[in-house]
Amino acid sequence: MTQDRKDLSVAQVAVILVCSSRHVLNLINSGHFPNAYKMNPGKRSVYRIPKKDLDAFLKLRTVK
C-alpha cells in the first residue's frame, strides 16, 4: 500500500511555491510540514510531503 498519490516530492512543492528545493527542505526542517517523511531511513533519502500539509501551509500563508 502506498500513499504517494496524495504525497508530493520536494521538487513538486518547490514548483507550487515558486521557490527552490533547498527552501522546501528548510521548511521541512523548521517544522512547516510536520507530516513530511523520508522514503527510506538513509541519510540521502528523498522526502515526501503530504498534500494536506501543503494545503495547510498555503492557507496560513495567504490568511493575514
List keywords for this structure.
alpha+beta; about 60 residues; single chain; about 45% helix; Arc Repressor Mutant, subunit A; 3-stranded antiparallel sheet
Major beta sheet summary: 3 strands, antiparallel
* Beta-strand percentage range: 5-15%
Shape: globular
Computed Rg: 12 Å
As for the number of domains, it is 1
CATH architecture: Orthogonal Bundle
Number of helices: 3
Tell me, rounded to a whole number, the average pLDDT. 91
CATH domain class: Mainly Alpha
Order of helices and strands: EHHEEH
| Helix content class | 40-55%
Q: Give me the CATH fold name.
A: Arc Repressor Mutant, subunit A
Tally the beta strands.
3
Low-confidence stretches: none
Structural class by helix and strand composition: alpha+beta
Quaternary organisation of the protein chains:
single chain
Strand order of the largest sheet: 1-3-2
Kindly report how far apart the N and C termini lie: 39 Å
